[in-house]
Amino acid sequence: MQRVKKIMPRHYVMHRDEIKKITASDLFDLTHEDQLRKAQEWIKETAQACSVLAILIATVVFTAAFTIPGGNNEKGFPHFLRSPLFYVFTVTDVASLSFSLSSVVMFLSILTSPRESSDFLSDLPSKLTTGFILLFFSVLTSMITFSASLLLIIRLGKKWTATLYAAAIFPVVILALMEFPVYTNFAANFKDYLGPSKKKKRTHWR
Prior knowledge:
Elements: H1 2-7, H2 24-31, H3 33-65, H4 84-111, H5 123-154, H6 158-194, H7 198-205
Keywords: Membrane, Transmembrane, Transmembrane helix
Transmembrane segments: 46-66, 86-111, 132-156, 162-183
Protein name: PGG domain-containing protein
């Protein structure tokens, strides 16, 4: 519909049907009410599920920040303060908390939006895509945090260290494979909504 709207004369947009006295936009909304309802339910359920996961990650990494691997010495400083892995643990823990809470904000903005048909053109897809990306990075950094804390405690060799990191990345890969088709569909639809560039349009009319 947006493609047709862009290429047709602007004054045609307000023309009304002789029988029902409605515009083309109104007719489109009437004939796609069922699709809109299904889309509203799907994006609501998706945002709710992702919000639960993001809140769970935020809770875990927030707790991990106060449960320092190895504990503290008699002066109150962490035992592994000078270890590079401790810095990895600290940075990724903070990053995971930031990513997860940011994704919660994005998903909550979807849940609190009216979710009208016009919102599905760019607003809701962009919010959901951003939420997916933030959630992906929160899972990634949380698994790195877990691996770093485990390595600080048990001190594995290089071979087992690589194996542990590979095992930690496995859930991230699964999440990426599951969500990547959704992301590509949103990206393709958004690109389709934007349409061809102005240069291509001028060439077409020539």
